[in-house]
Amino acid sequence: MAVGRRPAQPLSTGNDLFHQRLKQAEQQVQNHLDVVLALPKSDIADAMRYTAQGGKHLRAFLVLEGADLHGIAPENAIWPATAIECMHSYSLVHDDLPAMDDDDLRRGRPTVHKKWTEATAILAGDALQTLSFELLTTPDCHPSAQVRIDLIHAMTIAAGARGMVLGQAQDIAAETATTPLTLDQITTLQEGKTGALITWSATAGAIMARADTGPLGTYAHALGLAFQIADDILDVTGDEAKTGKRLQKDADAGKATFVSLLGLDGARQRAAELVDQACTALDPYAGKADTLRQAAQFVTARQS
Fold it and tell me: Can you tell me the distance from the alpha carbon of 228 to that of 7, in angstroms, rounded to the nearest whole number?
């Protein structure tokens, strides 16, 4: 799918530019998802398309911005950007299942197992996960097979038993633990459950350019924790009509969160510190990374 390059000159300044690029990324990735999910008619295909609709596509945005920083063509970057959305969508479908978080609502709509069946949800999630790897194998993603392997290898670590899956398992175990998790334990948990895919997203462009992933990895590590703290704050203070999901479920389950351990003010302060760390990590890119700096500020100011 052809994707046009961004204009050489910014179309606007400040947060307006960030929101414009976020919206642009959302549209580009949604268009590409529509193409790669043009599968033969079935409940599984319908559930996959249903799951992939909506959301901010923040992870895809991070892929596209990181790629842009390193001179990767948009027509190549769209493939890993779409791949991460497939992987993220799979994680949401499975996370909502009765055996996991048991949620009825996602993005303001019934979860997949509620709209179809648990079996359909499991299989749709499985199919989205494998599709993410398929998208990374195409030469349209990158002409170098080694680079494609590097992207896939990094994805397997981020999504698997050393990353997101580990974090999810730790989160489930916390529900029946006799003592609440400590702040260090919650931080480790969230670095896997939420942070691992965010880190992959932010560093994919550097991997494609065979550049140093250090600065963007440091940025993403801080960003991922700030994102989760913001989620914990929204779970207490948010509006279900805006978030599109059930709130205060962690409190109802008696689970420790950043808010329960730090308090609202303490959690907000910690998120602000992490945003500062994320922005500082981008110093090697100077002004070229301003949109990523604004993304860090956005994750703690969002209402959904």
Answer: 33
